[in-house]
């Protein structure tokens, strides 16, 4: 019996040695590198996907549903009819009034990497045929921070919407006030909020859409002043971040704290809307507003 098992052991060992011999032949062709940009790895679940397929899915991970960050121009393309925007204040750029160390260099670097002049793009277009004034923040530009140019461009957009009686839509994405501009940055909170108050007095419709992440002075001003407040799934927003809050109150925060779903449950926004449904949702809201405005005009007429 022992001799038989030894024979079997030898045969198995010989089989695997032969199999290994043909399975591990090194080849230079097997070491080909995938060109940069062809594949994308989900930062949430780690799934690797073709970048083109990810783009077709509005940059939402097909595996876990994570909403990857969009640039301002990508957001505009997904939102406006045919992606067409008549842009406002395109050439407005920030200066360095406080001579903050390396601020000028950081501005130049962000301009070069994003193709933008600052952290927001404003203008007008149509959604479902309805004319709108839109402002889209870009986190890629200095963390989407609220500086004097961002505040001025958003304020001018609000004033234009007031004058033209167009609905106003703002997509927020920001790390908060821009420290490089100190008090000049903080002033933008009051300036944008004041413009929105006048817009509301004229009966304007303001739809605020919060994307990931939106914090600090942006949350403390225009992002939370919408007549209707929407957010993308998983978007985190608040004033201070969770780490700062935990260190301050010395308590563990609830699961999902500051996510769109958590904030919706606690009454901080009206609805969480998947990116693929955002344009349809905005179209419906704008149609309702247009019908209401038409009826009111007829009644007063």
Automatic annotation (TrEMBL):
Any single GO molecular-function term of the entry would be: acetyl-CoA carboxylase activity
Offer one Pfam family short name for this entry: Carboxyl_trans
Question: What EC number(s) does the entry state?
Answer: 2.1.3.15
Catalytic reactions on record: N(6)-carboxybiotinyl-L-lysyl-[protein] + acetyl-CoA = N(6)-biotinyl-L-lysyl-[protein] + malonyl-CoA
Does rRNA processing show up as a keyword for this record? no
Which segments constitute the CoA carboxyltransferase N-terminal domain? 38-301
- On the tree of life, the source organism's domain of life is Bacteria
Q: Which family does it belong to?
A: Belongs to the AccD/PCCB family.
Protein name, UniProt field: Acetyl-coenzyme A carboxylase carboxyl transferase subunit beta
